[in-house]
Design goal:
heterodimer, A: mainly alpha, 60% helix, B: Tetracycline Repressor, domain 2, 0% strand, flat
Chain lengths: 55, 307
C-alpha cells in the first residue's frame, strides 16, 4: 500500500484495496493451516521415525 | 487462451486490465459450498464404514482433499459454463457472470486446487484414492460439463457419476482398496441424481431453455420428465435397500432406506399430476433422502458393526 501509484497506471479504489487485503489474509491463513496440516501428517505418518535419520 | 468462451464474456474487462475486485466470499462461492457439503458427508460415511483404520488426522486431511477437489471441479465448471450461467436467472449472480471474478482467475483457482488436492490425497492416504479423485474431477469437468451438458438430455444421468464417486474415494482412502459396498453406495447416488436434478429442472425449465441447455424437461417435456423421475425413484428404492438385502448393512439401515425410498417414490408418484410446489418438495426431499440414508448407514455401522 506504500507503493506510489503512477498517475498513468492503475489506481486501486478503497473497495479494491479492502478486497485485496482480505484476499491476502485468506491466503496467509490458508498457507498457515496447510503448513500445520503437513506438520501433523508428517508426525502421524512417520511417528518417532522422523528423528531416525543419518546425521 | 483468449478464445475460450469464458474469457470472451469479459473481453472488455480484460482489455482494460482491471485489477481483481474479487472478495474472499467470491472464491468460496466458486467452490459451491452447498454441493460440497453433500460430497463431504457421503465421503465421510464411505471413509468411516470402510474396513481398516485411518488415523483421525489423516482422515481429516483426506476429507479436506476430497472437499477441495470437489470445490476445484465446481470452480472449473463455473469457468467453462460462464456463458450459460449468465443467461439463467438461478446462476446469473455467480461470481464470473456477475463480473466479480475473471474467467482466468477461476480457471487458475480451479486447476491449482485440483492439482493440490490430488497430490496431497496421494501422499496422505494412497494413490488409489488420489486417482479416483482425479478421475472424478476430470469426469465432472471434461465429461459432464464440457461434453454432455450441452449435447444430450441424459447429461445428468451419465454426469451424475461424478457426484457418486466421493464415498468410493473415502472408502479407498481408508482401506486402500475397493469392494462391493462402496460400489453400492456409488449406485445409490448415481440413481438418486436424475430425480434430484430433474425436479430442479422442472422448476427451471424456462431458464434452461433460454440458456440452450437440453435438460429433459426442455427436450422431452414436463410429463415425460415426471415419468422418468418416477422410474428412477422406483429403481432407487431397491438400490437403497441393497446393502441390507446383501447383508452388508443391518436392519436399522434397511428400515431407514426402505422408508426413505418409499417417501421418494410417493413424492414422485404425486408429481405425475402437476401441482404447485410438487417439484420443489421432491427436490428438497431428495436432499434429505441422501443425508438420511447415509446417516443411517453410519449409525448402523457404529451400532452393529455392519458394512
Amino acid at each position: 500500500m506504500d507503493r506510489r501509484d503512477d498517475e498513468s497506471g492503475i489506481v486501486l479504489t478503497e473497495e479494491q484495496k479492502r478486497r485485496r487485503r482480505a484476499r491476502s489474509i485468506a491466503i496467509a491463513l490458508s498457507l498457515g493451516a496447510l503448513a500445520l496440516l503437513f506438520y501433523l501428517v508428517t508426525i502421524v505418518k512417520l511417528g518417532p521415525g522422523v528423528l531416525r535419520r543419518p546425521l | 487462451m483468449v478464445t475460450t468462451r469464458g474469457v470472451n464474456l469479459h473481453e472488455a474487462a480484460l482489455a482494460r486490465a482491471e485489477p481483481s475486485g474479487a472478495g474472499v466470499e467470491d472464491y468460496l462461492a466458486l467452490m459451491k459450498p452447498r454441493v460440497m457439503s453433500l460430497v463431504v458427508f457421503t465421503a465421510l460415511v464411505g471413509l468411516l464404514v470402510a474396513p481398516g483404520h485411518l488415523h483421525p488426522v489423516l482422515g481429516f486431511a483426506a476429507l479436506l482433499c476430497i472437499a477441495v477437489g470437489a470445490g476445484a471441479a465446481s470452480a472449473l465448471n463455473m469457468w467453462y459454463d460462464a456463458d450459460i450461467d449468465a443467461r439463467m436467472s438461478r446462476t446469473c449472480g455467480r461470481p464470473i457472470p456477475a463480473g466479480r471474478v475473471l474467467p482466468g482467475e477461476a480457471l487458475a483457482f480451479g486447476l491449482t486446487l485440483a492439482g493440490g488436492a490430488v497430490a496431497v490425497l496421494g501422499l496422505v492416504a494412497n494413490w488409489l484414492a488420489a486417482g479416483l479423485l482425479a478421475f472424478t474431477i476430470f469426469f465432472y469437468v471434461g465429461i459432464y460439463t464440457a461434453w454432455l451438458k450441452r449435447r444430450t438430455p441424459h447429461n445428468i444421468v451419465i454426469g451424475g457419476a461424478a457426484g457418486a464417486f466421493p464415498p468410493m474415494i473415502g472408502w479407498a482412502a481408508a482401506s486402500g482398496g475397493l469392494a462391493l459396498e462402496p460400489i453400492l453406495l456409488f449406485l445409490i447416488i448415481f440413481l438418486w441424481t436424475p430425480p434430484h436434478f430433474w425436479a430442479l429442472a422442472l422448476c427451471r425449465a424456462d431458464d434452461y431453455a433460454r440458456a440452450g441447455v437440453p435438460m429433459l424437461p426442455v427436450v422431452a417435456g414436463a410429463q415425460e420428465t415426471r415419468r422418468q423421475i418416477l422410474l428412477y425413484a422406483l429403481t432407487l428404492l431397491p438400490a437403497g435397500a441393497a446393502p441390507w438385502v446383501l447383508g452388508l448393512a443391518g436392519p436399522l439401515y434397511g428400515i431407514a432406506a426402505i422408508f426413505a425410498g418409499a417417501g421418494m417414490v410417493g413424492l414422485a408418484w404425486r408429481l405425475r399430476r402437476p401441482r404447485a410446489g410438487g417439484e420443489a418438495a421432491l427436490f428438497a426431499y431428495s436432499v434429505v433422502y441422501l443425508f438420511a440414508v447415509f446417516a443411517a448407514l453410519l449409525i448402523d455401522h457404529r451400532l452393529f458393526g455392519s458394512a
